[in-house]
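Take the subject:
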Amino acid sequence: MLERTAYLAFAFALLTLGIWPQGVSTAHEGATGVVKERMEAMKGMEERMKAMAAMLKGERQWNLPYIETSARQIAQHANDLPRLFPTGSDGHPSEALPSIWQEKQRFEQLAKELSGKAMKLAALSKATPQAELIPPFSAVAKTCKACHGDFRKKK
């Protein structure tokens, strides 16, 4: 049963990783200041999520310190998100929707949830078997997707 549950959780995580488009670098052209800083932070989170997904799927060599470090970095970026979206930073090339500022409390709550879930993944990575890291990884991915779904322009 655990194996099936882990498989389903992992499958969900992989589906949610589809939220990031290929070729993000073109969106960064012309970005400056806080918009550039947040785009770079999001790109860093994307790269770490993809690498962890590949490790959990067995497509990349397992590297437990990388999992822990990545989860901690994602948590730190999540803590920075409210600061990275000041009022008036929604112009081109930003991919942020006005809903970030209209629903600021919800946006900040999702950032807080992301940080907490990423820190849980980091803590569990120290003493949890690889297959059992899939559900907490999926929780991080699901939170990313929720935020992107409500607060990021569709591609």
Observations:
- Residues 4-8, 11-16, 19-26 have pLDDT under 50 and may be disordered.
